[in-house]
Each structure stands twice: as C-alpha cells, then as structure tokens.
Amino acid sequence: MQPLESRIQYKFRNSLLLAEALTHPS
Asked: Mean of the pLDDT values across residues 2-16?
C-alpha cells in the first residue's frame, strides 16, 4: 500500500501534466 503522500504527489503531478497539455497543445 502506497503512502498517502506518494498518492497525493502522483495525483498532483498528473494534474500538472494534464494542465500543461491543455494549455500547451503539441
């Protein structure tokens, strides 16, 4: 079972990547 902090970081990173993809479409 992953630590809660790792899960939060993972979700946060996913959100950043998604936002970057939306704001900077390739």
From this structure: 93
Which tokens is 4 given? Answer: 């809660």
pLDDT at 24: 81
Q: What is the pLDDT of residue 17?
A: 95
Domain assignments of the chain as residue spans, ordered by start: 1-26
Amino acid letter for position 21: A
CA distance 10 to 26: 23
Residue 18 CB contacts under 8 Å (≥ 6 apart), including other chains: none
As a whole number of angstroms, the distance between CA 6 and CA 3 comes to 5
